[in-house]
Amino acid sequence: MTTGTYEQLLSDAAAIREKIDGDLWPKYKELSKKFEAEYPEFKKSDFKLVADLVYYQGGWPSLNSKPKEEDLADRVAAALRLEKAIDRNRLVELLSERGIEVSLRVEDLARDRKLTLRDMVSAAQGLQKEMCHDADEIKIAMAEVAEEQFKVEKANFVKAVKIAASGNRKKIEKKIAKVEETAANLEVAIEPLKE
């Protein structure tokens, strides 16, 4: 890395990005296409899944991150145990349909804890449905109005809504200041590209 001007630093970084986008990423995509052709029983995205499981062996995105395989195993195990606790077997059935047999060796939750968990999951379903409906109203219907009538890009409208809903005036002002700072920093960052 050079330590010259900002313009040189930007140019050096752009050259690295060009290598990633123009050379490395197309090669990776080609491997993904080969995977898709060779293994039609899998989705193309499964290639990235398995590549990530092998590549990320802990320490990313944070130093305390577990290896991807271990994290995925923990999440699947938790899903299976919790589903069993509410007397559901759908995940086991789905895995079985895909040729994977699962044998659960977990202690059953006490009856009262099962009922509590079942009630919590049931309540969560209703809340999730309502949240998704409301979020869709903002990011689809209302954002469309913002774009058509007020010429505000949909993504920017959604960001503005998040800021507006962030709480008291002090929090809102702080978030606005952060956005303005980010915009100003971006303006400085792209200045050499305006020539």
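Second entry:
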Amino acid sequence: MTWINLGTYLARTVRVGSTAALLAEVDLSDLVKTTLLLRFAQDYRHSRVGQGLLKQTVAAFPIAIAVAGRGADEAFDDLFREVHLLAGKQIMTTLLNAASVDEIVDGFLFGVLPSEERFDEWKTLSIIVVEDDGRQLKQISSALEKWLDGEEQVGGG
């Protein structure tokens, strides 16, 4: 999967991507060491892409998954059901009901943390904008800038 690496926060890589850019090569195997935000640009209830991606991300065992955006309540219900069906490592889950992109980013950075048993595994913070037209990804990247430790880098990872 191709990501845009923005820098670091708490000495962990911060990266963003969107399904518009990632649909052809969705490989989520590198999510096992990340806290993840799925931001739904289109209504989750009517999004086969969003619903499929949610199931794929749970199967990849990220440290934590937060959902935000249009239809996030329904996405969280599905997320909770999917996580409940798994055995093994714990995945923390969060619903971010925020009005603005800044509030979503702040909620993700300050409120989506690993469980104590998985804290040492935590290496990245990842945000995927689902079905983005490019605007939301830019807004999220801009909202993250004030919190980054490092310089902006564009590229894969």
